[in-house]
Amino acid sequence: MRIYRYILAAAAALALVCSCTTEKSQKPQNVIYLIGDGMGFGAVSSLLLSQDGETGFEMAPVIGLNETQSANNYVTDSPAGGTALATGTRTCNGFLGVGPDSVQLESVLKKAQTMGKKTGIVVNTTLTEATPGAFYAGVTSRSMSYKIAEQFCESGVDVAVGAGLSVFINRPDSVDLTATLINKGYDVYLDWKSVLNTQSEKFVGILEMGDVHRRNKSSNKTAGAADGAEVCLAAKLAAEASDGDTTRFSEPAEYLQKATVKAIEQLEKNAPKGFFLMIESAIIDGYGHNNDSDGMIEEMQEFDRTLKALVAYVKEHPNTLLVVTADHETGGTGVGYKSHPVNAPEGMKLTFSTKGHTGTVVPIFAYGAGAEKFAGIFQNRELPGMIEELMK
Ligand SMILES: [Zn+2]
After folding, report:
1. Does residue 229 have a pLDDT over 60?
2. Which of 83, 111, 120, 290 has its Cβ near the most Cβ atoms within 10 Å?
3. How far does residue 187's CA lie from ligand 1's centre (Å)?
4. Strand order in the sheet with 376-379
């Protein structure tokens, strides 16, 4: 009997040791936060149903749900949605990186910097758009792009790739912010090839919009947003992408994946405390606003290429946490009854119920160290605090 008790005690002690070890191994050194703007269940379904092979979503060991409302509306806009995902505070629609009291908030990217991590931003829209802006800016309107560009220069990020040069150089105050960045020690690149070939650990790539977003073959030219949704850049871009110009198709279609891989390569160097990288796939939202089925499906395929590259990275680097979610759903996107017989020559056609955002919950997919924390139903504002806690 006594021996049995000893065995039990030894087993309990071992279990304690094991759980401690497991607990420790679940702390990520690197965090990758991938946000699909407007990527609700309809968008994810469009990929799962139209793709034969395994998608990056299906490789997720952990899945959760994310309630996306803002401080003052069940339907958030991108600035408030981004602010909740970046700072842990729900703010009023229209506000970016500030609380309902207009006071600037501290983002999880800033907290990662305080912990000694290197940080990066990769987007397929402008660097000063709402979602990336939520991680470094603090303004009461997304349209304050000149101010957001100034705040970007103060962000302290090590690596950033996106578009939107005009607010850095064609400014009412005549300041050349690319010079400001260079004075701060950045290598600044204005072309894609230089970004792809750089070995710099501190660089900003500010590219042409045609470099960061493909032109698709869709003929749907419906532009603009209705139903009280913001008229966002993504909607305009998605409309422009429907102009039939396919000449730049192949390279920009790989932009997000390649820019992400390049950013990680440079962030990994001399990073004893690891890195925090936020990535936004911005134009899913635009195709939702434009109710463009083909565009959204192609955009989700691009998203999946990036996601798969990240899942492969996490497999090779198990000290990395990858969290994938959306700021909100756009378009009321669905797969409506009788809308598309299987194997129809025209392919799947999504159905839409609005040209604006919706307040339906969006998915969370988590991979790697600490991923299990993301199983469940969460409010958007909970995610940054959970990531911060894991990084500590
Ligand atoms: Zn939108």
Report:
1. no
2. 83
3. 32
4. 187-189, 203-207, 159-163, 118-126, 275-281, 30-36, 320-326, 362-368, 62-67, 376-379
